[in-house]
Amino acid sequence: MKNLLTVLFASTITISLAQPKTPEQISLSLKLNSTGGTNGCSVAWNPINKMYYAIIAGNIDYPIDIFDETGKWISKQVSGVDVRGIWFNPKTKKLEGKSNEGELFSWSIDSDGGLDEPQLVKESIGIDGQFVVSFSKGFYFYHEEGVIKKVSAKGAIDYIQLARPSEEDDYNTYGMGYTEVKNYEIVLFNRATSSLEFYNLKGDLTATVALPGYIPDMVRFRFSFANNMAWLFDTDERVWNGYKVF
Hints:
Elements: H1 2-18, E1 28-31, E2 40-46, E3 51-56, E4 63-68, E5 73-78, E6 83-89, E7 94-99, E8 104-107, E9 119-122, E10 134-136, E11 139-144, E12 147-151, E13 157-161, E14 177-178, E15 186-190, E16 195-199, E17 205-210, E18 223-226, E19 229-234, E20 239-244
């Protein structure tokens, strides 16, 4: 009986820890050392080298800015890809990204966390255009007008209809996040309420978290999720501000 109570208590703690928390302030900032573009596209976290990678959408000449785990800027390099989403693939141990044309690229990572030149992995993952892609366990995710589209490596698509409480115009266009946290996998940014909305893989709204302080109005792009933090891009300051919610 004692062992059973211990297991139940531990399970309760695990569940409570997995719930998104309301941040009191900005948790971490990534100040870009580049000047091109305003459409902040993605932040990716490399857990091996403990580094962040941030990129702007719109041009193959825009750089990838690299930061350490404290937010200190380390270096930058030309991305070579007009990116619409980047992520760290734990299986390949490479940085990967989807281009505006729907191609899949990868960047090998050296021992210091730096990146090699981009390599074309696949001519199409079946998602072209402006949609910013998130990746998890072999699947690509993107958001379009209240529907999450989950695309397999073979191109099969599952559709997840979200029970969104607000109108279409209230949401950031193109941006979404994938948290890896059960029951809160999908996260959207609601512009009208300056809040994060979390959904499970059935499309149910499971939590809403209000963000503190001044939040720039982000009509499109400029929203990402990495390392348990929601990231919002301030175009005036050219900085990604992270809010830890897990």
